[in-house]
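By convention, the token line describes the chain's fold. To illustrate:
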Amino acid sequence: MGIEETVIVSIEDLGAAAYLLMHGYSFHDKEGRTIKFEVEKSGVAELKRRKNEYLTSEFHRFDSCLMSLKKM
């Protein structure tokens, strides 16, 4: 069995990036506001599903409320 190739996936939404970290994705690097994750090629679709899942999660709601308070 060979080692699966990994790819780097860039996420520009800090909240989504934090959500991915909470779900065990491996941080690779940060460039400006872009957070990069290293993921096996076969796991890219699952990472994208998790990123979209973030938008309907309680974590997203909390993050939105936090940002709203920050702007007051």
User: Anything to note?
Assistant: Residues 6-71 form one domain. The mean pLDDT is 94.
